[in-house]
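Problem 12. The chain below contains 244 residues. Write out its predicted structure in token notation.
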Amino acid sequence: MIEWRDQGILLSARKHAETSAIIEVFTPEHGRHVGVVRGGTSRKIAPILQPGAQLDLAWRARLEDHIGAFSVEPVRSRAALVMGDRLALAGLNAVTALLSFCLPEREAHAPLYLRSERLLDLLGQTEVWPLAYLQWEMALLEEMGYGLDLARCAVTGTSEGLVYLSPRTGRAVSEAGAGDWADRLLPLPPVMRGEGEAGDLEIAEALRTTGYFLSHHLAADLGDKPLPEARARFLAAFSRRLGK
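Solution.
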């Protein structure tokens, strides 16, 4: 019998057979992991299995490659953080959907796990959450091997006047270095380099840029699958806030 114990974030849960549930979790030591929860549809356990919940997990299986079974205990629910807040709920769904989409199964990504846990704990703090989410998407790209190089211009080597990103390489380009290629480059808002005021309009522009790399690089290499709709729904909710 193989077993381990860890804490983790619940990414998804679905009914299995008559009374069980199959859950997908993200843990610091065991990465994205799937398993069965016996009695997962019961009145006692079902309320625990809400996406974003922090769980204490014990996993057991006869063989390493078996799906295995989870025992779960609640650590904290994040349902109250999104109750009545459409933007927070959309953000929670975007995070869990992207983690499920991007992460290889059973591969540890401890730094990304810590960032994800901290981000989810900020849910409901509407003034800081969009910026934290942008920084998380940039960290996700980095962790998955698609990090953006924002330090120096890919053409001139300068660290000044960086206003573009190469859509092919993810490297920063200065206005002087862009030349006639400027209209083929992506915008690099200062907020992506930790500069200036992090206004909502600038964050929205930055999310369009990170979205390009998520879609055209990361997703393309995962079999050219489309990004989860949950991310688009979060951007739509954020855009509605901008329109107020």
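Discussion. DSSP finds seven helices and eight strands in the chain. Students who got a different answer should revisit the alignment rule from Section 12.3.
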